[in-house]
């Protein structure tokens, strides 16, 4: 495997080695050398529960090393790179949520793409899936711009927060059941931050749907039984422990497999976002 060579960030021009070390100045990196690192399932649970506010939670997520297979893969990709990005540094770390915690809409994806968020360090940034999602969010008034190509590119979200059940890029985009379980406390903590404000949760794909239902049940929310079935445009009503209703909404994932084949069209995505 090649030795990490510092390369210029595409926005700031600052050189970074891949994977990026915390506290070295990557745009929006809130971790530093003193951020506690989770290396086991138990440590993920403890650090997620003990995070003090969203910034501390994001920092702890971004340095997590609890899943050896995912850590090895994300760092291998960061070192070997895709040819198109050979002159760029890769984030190569776990990816925290993106967007304000008081947003009324939460979007739950799957996991970072190897050459997307694993490269840029920001959810759905730097690949065609992100182009689709942020284009739709921009048309709906949730995103300040339709393009998302690098952390620090000026993109801001208003009224929406994006989280994921798995925070590291998995091989073949397929996290194992154990990896999803290990990462679940980070999702629980993010959902807890959003819970007082959220009115709608949009799940991109069946994994996002299933893990969201599991997460809110774990938090004491009421979920209809039998368990709501995932599908594009599927809807269900959740209830917080305080009795407030939150809409659970399904959408096919914005993966190239779905968008290239026409399984998901821009009109379909715009319509489901408009329903939030």
From TrEMBL:
Record's keyword annotation contains DNA repair: yes
Location of the Uracil-DNA glycosylase-like domain: 96-273
Alphabetical UniProt keywords: 4Fe-4S, DNA damage, DNA repair, Hydrolase, Iron, Iron-sulfur, Metal-binding
Region described as Disordered: spans on this chain: 1-24
Leader sequence residues: none
Pfam families on file: UDG
Family: Belongs to the uracil-DNA glycosylase (UDG) superfamily. Type 5 (UDGb) family.
PANTHER family: TYPE-5 URACIL-DNA GLYCOSYLASE
Name the UniProt record assigns to this protein: Type-5 uracil-DNA glycosylase
Provenance organism: Janibacter alittae
Highest classification ranks of the organism: Bacteria, Bacillati, Actinomycetota, Actinomycetes, Micrococcales
